[in-house]
Amino acid sequence: MAHMPACVNRSPDLQAEITTKIVEAVDGMFLLAQLHLDSLKGKRSSKAVRSALSVLHAGSQAYDLAYDDAMKRIEGQRKDEVELAKQVLPWITCAKRPLSTIELQHAHGVEVGETELDLDNISQPEDIMSVCAGLVTVDEESNIIRLVHYSTQEYFMRTWKRWFADAQTEITKVCATYLSFSSFESGFCRTDADFEDRLRLHPLYDYVAHFWGDHAREAGETSPAVLGLLRNEKNVEAQVQVLWVAERFRPRGYSQRFPKRMQGLHVTHILG
Fold first, then answer.
1. Residue 99, strand partner residues
2. pLDDT per residue over 234-250, tens digit each?
3. For residues 179 and 115, is the Cβ–Cβ distance under 8 A?
4. 245-263 in b/e burial notation, b at 16+ Cβ within 10 A?
């Protein structure tokens, strides 16, 4: 049993007891078994392990109760670890489409009020997953970072206001800050190559350009970061280019096929 407390590693009898109790509780549900195992990692005595085993959750509410326990473990970590987990979990839960690892790294690395992204403020995927109590995984084939199970997504969709009540407001601020970066103050890109370079160098740009309006609407308030963005004609112009240009069917000059001279109010109308 990897990463278990020493009291477990040194006791075959306790290992057998853990296996028996968890198998009885989970009724073949592998993820639940993993969550129960994870809940034992912080125990530092055989008595504490057995006490935890005696109250393992089973039945229809088992997942929700196990996720409650996982969130309590997250909140019991060191301050920086709690902050990282509570930055990334809202993004993964509330995102309007699946996010790649690099998109999530940029999202949590944004500092509201700054005019560029400090790459030294970005955490590595391994560190992100390590602070999320087994609730987050990375798909190796697609490099999408996501919640570990559909039931995890369902749990957070029901309870996110309990754990991160200001999620939509904070996400909106990050989106508006990213769109306001000085990198985009030159306005729209004049060539396809420049446009593609912009998207490559700013991995979160496509997401925030398309979905900041959704997050702002759900936040129900207008932040100073949003007002600042809407007043910046060049940054709005750059965003419109991303909104309008299709990802498919890219003939020569495709990046120039979008309406010019649009203002912030036009964008808010498009995004609803």
1. 145
2. 999 999 889 888 554 45
3. no
4. beeeeeeeeebbebeeebe
* Helix, strand, coil % over all residues of the chain, rounded to 5: 60, 5, 35
Q: Residue 76 has what DSSP assignment?
A: T
Nearest to 35 by CA among 70, 82, 59: 70
pLDDT digits (tens, 9 = 90+) for 124-153: 999 999 999 999 999 999 999 999 998 899
What stretches of the chain adopt beta strand conformation (E)? 99-100, 136-138, 144-147
Tokens of 91: 């993004």
Helix (H) or strand (E) holding 101: helix 101-109
pTM given for the model: 0.77
CA distances from 253 to 9, 115, 206, 228, 238 (A): 63, 29, 19, 31, 16
Q: Residue 29 class from Cβ within 10 Å (0-12 exposed, 13-18 middle, 19+ buried)?
A: middle
Rounded to 10 degrees, the C-alpha dihedral 66/54/17/67 comes to 0
| CA 115 distance to own-chain centroid | 22
| Separation between Cα atoms, residue 141 and residue 143, nearest integer Å | 6
Selection from 27, 2, 13 nearest residue 134 by Cα = 2
For the chain, give every domain's residue range. 6-59, 73-163, 167-270
3-state secondary structure of 138: strand
